[in-house]
Amino acid sequence: MALSRIQVPPEARRGEAVEVRILIQHPMETGFRRNLEGKRVARNVLHSLACRYNGVEVFRATLSSGIAANPALRFFVRAEKSGELEFWWLDDDEVEGSARARLTVL
Amino acid sequence: MKRRAVLALGLLGIPLRGLAQANVHVSTTDPLVYALTKGKVVNAGRVKLELPQIADTGYSVPMTVRVESPMTPASYVRRIHLIAEKNPMRDMASFQLGPHSARAEVGSNIRLNGSQRVVAIAELSDGSFWSDAVQIEVREAACTEDG
Fold first, then answer.
1. How many angstroms from the chain centroid is the CA of residue B88?
2. Which among B15, B61, B98, B106 counts the fewest CB atoms within 10 Å?
3. CB-based burial of residue A64 (10 Å sphere; 0-12 exposed, 13-18 middle, 19+ buried)?
4. Residue A35 has what pLDDT?
5. A35 CB near a chain B CB, below 8 Å?
6. Residue B102 and residue A69: Cβ atoms within 8 Å?
7. Structural domain total, chain A
8. Could you tell me which of B139, B145, B25, B26 has the C-alpha nearest to residue B86?
9. Which structural domain, as residue segments, surrounds residue A18?
10. Domain B26-140 in this protein, CATH class
11. Do B109 and A33 count as a contact with CB atoms less than 8 A apart?
């Protein structure tokens, strides 16, 4: 499972737009590169990512090789109730990853 | 003197704005755009794509896309698509949002295969499409297609 880091403000007010950032360690291999022996490096892109907030999907991204290695995403969520932000992602090698962060709503 | 300077700026601004408008055009018959819009009109405006003017390398270029929308259950942004016109994979990314997003803004770092135009198309809950396009100069391309 890939390393990841989620950044959310420590606490938010109800109704506020909260900025959520996630950074995932992943090569985002394009499939166009060749290694030192001239062989093509197989494509391996983290192509799907979703974020659920208290069980409800609030964000989904479909990515291609056009996203830089170690994909970073930044988006907003309306703070409603204290709870969990759960991330899930999948790459071309069928490797799944997940991470969660706690959001405290005052 | 100050007023004159402001006037001169305004005069300069008009042709520049004219250029930006022409740049916004998106071909609706382009197969990739058609797959997203099903041939609907893509209007210019409401979307703001932010990229640096010049990037030293195309490996990781900061990108922010913002759409003017109240983001309420009655009116929100459904999806934002990013297209890099000169990348081997033109279809860069799609983001699904909803009224719970609170703000229609997404940021990421993108890869660019050389200087090109990047297009953002937003699909709104009323079924309309809006777009913005930005020309960016990339000094060193991120990927080279197999030669």
1. 18
2. B15
3. buried
4. 86
5. no
6. no
7. 1
8. B145
9. 4-105
10. mainly beta
11. no
